Amino acid sequence: MKFRYLYQLVASHIGVLFIAFLVLTLLFAHFAEELIYEDKTDELVSYGRNLMGNLSENPGESRRILGEYGRVLEGRDIQFSLFDSDSAVVYSSGRPASLIKLRREEWGRIRSGQAIIVNQEFERSDVGVTFTLLPYIRDGHFTGGVLLTSPISGSREVISELNRYLFWAMLAALAASLLLGWGLSAFHVKRLRRIRDAASRVASGDYSVRVPSSKVDEIGELSADFNGMAERLEQSMNEIDRLENRRRQFIADVSHEMRTPLTTIRGTLDGLRDGMIREEERERALALAGKETRRLIRLVNENLDYEKIRSGQITLEKTEIPLDDMLPLIAEQLETIAEEKGNVIRAETESGATVFADYDRLIQILINITKNSIQFTKGGTITLRGHMDGGTAVIEVADTGEGIDPEDVERIWERFYRAGVSRTSNPFGEFGLGLSIVRQLVKLHGGTIRVESKKDAGTTFTLRFPPKE
Question: Is the pTM of this model over 0.85?
Fold first, then answer.
């Protein structure tokens, strides 16, 4: 059987409040009843002692005093009787039939100087009464006792009236708590329902959903956590979509890149096998097949390198490397490629500048970036600079080429992404993996890489490597 959360909240609120009010009502009623009876007995004791005090002070006017007290106490619905030392009634303000007969043990107690107080007496009178029996001591001798009685009907009426008011107050409080509890419960259930509906939409693939959140209570914090989860899921799905699109594009590009060299290699092998290539052309055909084979090997190696770096399978062997030795070496190695496009490549280093890095991987990083600069520069200059910024080694690769479009600057690090001129023949990095590998290697060194580019004004790559700890 389904019991809705709204009803659970309302039932729990009302149940707790009902039990609390019931306990408080019973305790208050008991306290009030005790207070009323205690007040009544205190009143009887006070009248009794005043009566005995006046009788002791004015023994000759006892009849007048008893008469006056009888009239006053009659207005208070109180009766009294005066006993002698033998427990015989010597005066009574009430009817004889209504007098309470004293028991032997009660008379024994007042003879010893003890007062007897009974709040509710039903056995020795036709109506329930409260009575007080006080010993009458005069000149240090026991001379009798005074019995004062008052019907409990008046006290019971007060208690009944008080209980009635408490009952109506409890009903009013329960009604108010029901309305308040229902409103609060409905409000919280509505908030939970929004989260549930949003979760259903997320489960169906809609990651753009958000719910109102706050830091007022746990539900608000839950909403904030849900929004954070949905936002991260949306980012993850967008990234997955981008990766999937790039994967498809990469497969298409790789298929295109592999088809051309494989077709060339196959044609060369078929021509050699069938004798369709003349003897003087065989050397050139084999050189072409070798070139295309190396191109395929580079494609495979770049993908393997990227996966090894990303999965942490690369171990760096860092040493102190002088930049005034490394940068001129890079410029010398790539000078021929730069001249093919009419570029000039040069190195500028600060004396004594060193970098703490893995030699082979740093060579790979710099060749990758420099070849990228050569690819997009024609008839310009590529400059490799190295200097120290405190203990940090700074390497810059700047060119005067065509630059990178602003929308491509942040995306050049993405795997499989190739900006602008993507299908130009280039001996290195033509598969869109070069800069991705560069960034991963720089991060592996604990360094940073930043690119600044302006369209038709050149590009500058800035690498910063931390010092040896």
Answer: no
